[in-house]
């Protein structure tokens, strides 16, 4: 269990982060400012410090500089505001492990904490190697992250069992093999640059790339490398490797959700703009046909009306195609209940929505999600405009093969 000292002047932020980290197995302590954090560290040195840059009294940069002089091995993760790149860069120069920009996604923070924790575990394993070679190898093999030692030429000198399991190969087959053999061909250039910068600068390096897994699809890996002197003073490096495939999938899911929101906005514009144009064209064509005297003119207006109808059908078809997505009925019902209550309350009307049937059916594929919500909202709007009612009730009926919506009021109908 890694220990984390959370330093932030906002109590709500401290409490929220402590609750999150406790639920993921971290031991936490809290500090509201730099001086309090120094006292906490004097009592017990944490593995990781989660530090807000803007603190009362001693600011985050001053605290970072002081603590790195006395406890250089503490991994400090900076929390900084959006756009405050200058201070974040300065913090990295002073020895911060990493930084994260507020507001941040909690799973993104957990990934960074896991990396820092893996590095702490690696450092601890290295210390135990000095005390007990045999005990070290046992810990090294069973570590939660993949560890390996690499020569300057990129050959694997040593690897732990976790690394071998990640690749799906026997540990004994790894020694003296080039690491690039287990990297997806298109990503090998990424690792070549990573290794070159490591040995040229001597500074720790990080990169993400795809690795080959035996008899399985490739997986995304995060590599952190440290340059060290090996036997006979030969340059080598220690690499910590973590499987970040799940994190990558979450990033992809967020991107897809952003695309869906953009698509829905485009869809509304298409529906409202083109749909209205097609409807108005059809109305004008019908008016023109009624007033036309010559049969030839009437046929022209009939053709225009027919084309407007076809256009309207195409627009609705495109809308249904764009809006098709996998959603939960429970989410849709909750949105409708919120929309209905807000609309009715604004006009002094009571609103109730009742659900009948099973919400767990595979219903979201029956009708487009956004179209149903639009129909529901337009029905409520018509009641507000024309019924003179003061109470509205909606019933959503869910059956295995169909969905029905019934909306009633106590007005004129």
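-> sequence recovered:
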């Amino acid at each position: 269990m890694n220990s984390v000292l959370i330093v932030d002047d906002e109590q709500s932020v401290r409490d929220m982060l402590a609750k999150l980290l406790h639920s993921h197995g971290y031991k936490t302590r809290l500090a509201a400012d730099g001086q309090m954090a120094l006292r906490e560290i004097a009592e017990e040195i944490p593995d990781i410090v989660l530090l807000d840059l803007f603190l009362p009294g001693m600011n985050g940069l001053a605290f970072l500089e002081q603590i790195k002089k006395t406890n250089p091995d503490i991994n400090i993760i900076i929390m900084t505001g959006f756009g405050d790149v200058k201070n974040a860069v300065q913090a990295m120069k002073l020895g911060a492990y990493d930084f994260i920009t507020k507001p941040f996604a909690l799973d993104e923070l957990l990934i960074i904490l896991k990396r820092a924790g893996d590095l702490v575990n690696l450092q601890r394993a290295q210390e135990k190697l000095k005390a007990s070679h045999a005990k070290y190898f046992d810990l090294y093999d069973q570590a939660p992250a993949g560890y390996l030692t690499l020569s300057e030429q990129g050959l694997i000198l040593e690897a732990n069992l976790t690394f071998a399991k990640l690749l799906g190969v026997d540990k004994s087959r790894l020694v003296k093999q080039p690491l690039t053999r287990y990297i997806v061909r298109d990503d090998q250039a990424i690792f070549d640059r990573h290794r070159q910068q490591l040995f040229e600068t001597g500074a720790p390096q990080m990169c993400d790339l795809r690795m080959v897994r035996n008899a399985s699809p490739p997986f995304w890996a995060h590599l952190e490398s440290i340059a060290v002197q090996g036997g006979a003073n030969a340059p080598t490096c220690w690499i910590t490797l973590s499987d970040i495939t799940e994190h990558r999938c979450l990033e992809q899911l967020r991107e897809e959700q952003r695309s869906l929101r953009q698509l829905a906005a485009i869809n509304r514009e298409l529906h409202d703009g083109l749909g209205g144009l097609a409807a108005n064209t059809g109305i004008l064509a019908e008016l023109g046909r009624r007033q036309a005297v010559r049969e030839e003119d009437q046929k022209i207006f009939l053709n225009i009306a027919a084309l407007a109808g076809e256009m309207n059908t195409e627009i609705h078809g495109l809308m249904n195609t764009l809006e098709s997505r996998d959603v939960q009925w429970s989410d849709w019902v909750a949105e409708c209940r919120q929309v209905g209550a807000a609309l009715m309350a604004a006009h002094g009307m009571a609103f109730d929505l009742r659900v009948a049937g099973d919400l767990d059916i595979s219903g979201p594929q029956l009708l487009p999600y956004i179209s149903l919500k639009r129909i529901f909202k337009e029905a409520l709007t018509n009641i507000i405009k024309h019924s003179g009612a003061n109470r509205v009730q909606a019933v959503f009926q869910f059956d295995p093969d169909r969905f029905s919506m019934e909306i009633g009021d106590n007005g004129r109908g």
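DSSP finds twelve helices and 13 strands in the chain.
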